[in-house]
Structures are given as C-alpha cells and as structure tokens.
C-alpha cells in the first residue's frame, strides 16, 4: 500500500520534459546507429563495397535503445520512434493529444543527430563526406539502394512485420500489471535482432525518424523512396497496437 501511495504521489514529468527526453533519445539512436553505419562500414562510404559490418550496426542500434530506455524512459516512456508512439497510442497507453509533440520531437532529434554526423564528416578525410552521401548516407532503400538488391515489396513486408513484432515486445515488456524485469534490455536486443534480419533487405528502418534523419543527407534516391519507410513502419505499429489491445491486454479475475 505504501508503494502504491508513493507512486501516486510521484510527480508526473512535464510536457516539456517528455518532449526533450524524446528528442534526446532519438538523437542518441541516430547518432549511435547511423554514425556506426557511416564510420565503421565501408558499405556506406564506398559505393559497391560489400563489406558492411552488419553485426556492429545492429548492436549499435540496439545499444542506443537500451541506454536511451534507461536514461530517458522514466521521463517520456522512451519511444524515440514515431511508429512506436502511434502504436502505443493505438494500444491505449498514450493519449492521442500527446502524439504530435512526440513525433515532432523525435524527427527534430534525429535530424540534429544526422547534421552532427555531417559536420564531423566535413573534417574527415578528403572525399569522405561526398562518398558517404553518394552511397546514400546509410539511408533506407530498395532496388539499387538495397544492400542485397531486394525490391520494394520485400522492404514493405519486412517493415510491416518487424515493426509489428517490435511493438508486441515493447507493449508486452512494459505492461503495468505484468511488467518484465529489464524491459529496456529486452527491447534493445529485439531491435538488434531486427537489424540482423533486415539490414541486407533495406538497411532496416522500423523507425520513420531514423529514416528521415538519414535521407535528408542521402540524396535524391533515398528521398524518393522515403515514403515507404514512413508509411509501412506506422502500418505495422498500428496493427500491433490494436491487436495487442484487443487480443493480449485483457485481464481475468478468478
């Protein structure tokens, strides 16, 4: 009872604090994940190279979510992803009135991070930044912009399915009545697995903010394909949010 009273008396973070936490968390995700893809993998700096260090990139994205979840999750819920925000709202875990602010903060945080990466690249080796941008700046894509040459429908399927599974894990591990210990770790490892599966297909989005942040510096090709990585992660997240609320969120008293 004392714990319940203490929780009830705990101050609720302000809207400004929540939005700042979302911006910082998305900044960290893009800086860590896209930064690793750019700096650690020749695939994104040398067009035509097949030497992408998939495991390092996958771990970078997963680790940024783990760190961000524990650092900023207690303030905002730790979404760092417009698709997650929409899926969580569809599941009834976030008021819809808060969704626009979350999404704007996430997109801004991501673009600031990719801008920092560009600034670093300006002081890199001769031709590094031009090469990185010519190779797409670690953007998502299909066809000639896919590491494995996969087509648009492969990207659509993988984004819907993997984003939905990501939301199922998030909603399941953060349930108020049956929370999972170390939920942030489980969520981060899930994102790592998602990247291991789908980097060869489309460089892995499951996060429109991450896709926007990279594409704004990736050139015409990535920008022309960006709509897929905005629309279909959201589709997958909404499906999962509604399905979880309908099928898995019920309780029963005996």
Provide a quick synopsis of the model.
The chain has helices at about 1-10, 15-40, 55-75, 80-90, 100-120, 130-135, 150-175, 185-200, 210-215, 220-250.
Characterise the protein shown here.
With 254 residues, the protein is an all-alpha fold. The chain has a single domain, classed as Glycerol uptake facilitator protein. The chain is built from ten helices and no strands. The longest helix has 29 residues, at 220-248.
Features:
mainly alpha; transmembrane helix; cell membrane; transmembrane; single chain; MIP_CS; MIP; 69% helix
| Fourth-level CATH superfamily | Glycerol uptake facilitator protein
Which architecture would the CATH scheme give at its second level?
Up-down Bundle
Summed up, the domain count is 1
Instruction: Please outline the major beta sheet.
Output: none
| CATH topology (level 3) name | Glycerol uptake facilitator protein
CATH class: Mainly Alpha
Proportion of beta-strand residues: under 5%
Protein name: Aquaporin Z
Transmembrane segments: 23-40, 52-73, 103-123, 150-170, 182-201, 226-244
Pfam families: MIP
Keywords: Cell membrane, Membrane, Transmembrane, Transmembrane helix, Transport
List the helices and strands and how they pair.
Elements (H helix, E strand, L loop, with lengths): L1 H8 L5 H26 L13 H23 L5 H9 L8 H24 L5 H7 L17 H22 L9 H20 L5 H8 L4 H29 L6
Helix pairs in contact: 2-3, 2-5, 2-9, 3-8, 4-5, 4-7, 4-10, 5-9, 7-8, 7-10, 9-10
Protein name: Aquaporin Z
Membrane topology: Multi-pass membrane protein
Keywords: Cell membrane, Membrane, Transmembrane, Transmembrane helix, Transport
């Amino acid at each position: 009872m004392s714990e319940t009273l203490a929780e009830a008396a705990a101050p609720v973070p302000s809207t400004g604090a929540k939005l700042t936490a979302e911006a910082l968390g998305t900044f960290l995700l893009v800086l860590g994940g896209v930064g690793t893809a750019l700096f650690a993998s020749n695939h994104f700096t040398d067009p035509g190279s097949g030497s992408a260090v998939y495991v390092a990139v996958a771990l970078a994205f997963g680790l940024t979510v783990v760190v961000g979840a524990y650092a900023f999750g207690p303030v905002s819920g730790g979404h760092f992803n417009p698709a997650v925000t929409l899926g969580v709202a569809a599941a009834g875990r976030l008021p819809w009135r808060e969704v626009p602010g979350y999404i704007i903060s996430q997109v801004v945080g991501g673009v600031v991070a990719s801008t920092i990466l560009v600034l670093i690249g300006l002081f890199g080796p001769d031709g590094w930044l031009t090469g990185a941008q010519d190779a797409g700046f670690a953007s998502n894509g299909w066809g000639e912009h896919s590491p494995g040459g996969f087509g648009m429908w492969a990207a659509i399927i993988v984004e819907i399915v993997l984003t939905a599974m990501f939301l199922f894990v998030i909603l399941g591990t953060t349930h108020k009545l049956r929370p999972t210990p170390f939920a942030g770790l489980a969520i981060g490892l899930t994102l790592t697995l998602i990247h291991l599966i789908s980097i060869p297909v489309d460089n892995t989005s499951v996060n429109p903010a991450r896709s926007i942040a990279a594409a704004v510096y990736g050139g015409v090709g990535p920008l022309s394909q960006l709509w897929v990585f905005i629309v279909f992660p959201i589709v997958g997240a909404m499906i999962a949010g509604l399905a979880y609320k309908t099928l898995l969120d019920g309780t029963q008293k005996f």
